[in-house]
Design goal:
By secondary structure, the protein is an all-alpha fold. The chain has a domain of 33 residues. 43% of the residues lie in helices and 0% in strands. The longest helix is centred in the N-terminal third of the chain and has 15 residues.
Length: 65
């Protein structure tokens, strides 16, 4: 039994071609009534993960519903 050797470039090219031919890029899935929760484990202005999450939440609130 031989092993299949495929390069990463060939794999990505094949994946892109298969997605383009099936038309997946033309259909957009939309979820209705999505709720997102963020749990802060410290202050929001700690110059770390909490602040990054707070900035992301602020950016998400500006997106159209």
């Amino acid at each position: 039994m031989g092993l299949l050797h495929i390069s990463r470039r060939r794999f990505l090219q094949g994946s892109a071609v298969s997605l383009a031919t099936t038309g997946v890029s033309g259909r957009i899935a939309r979820a209705a009534g999505v709720t997102i929760g963020i749990v802060y484990v410290g202050p929001r202005d700690d110059f770390g993960w909490n602040q990054a999450h707070a900035v992301a939440v602020k950016a998400l609130k500006t997106l159209p519903a």
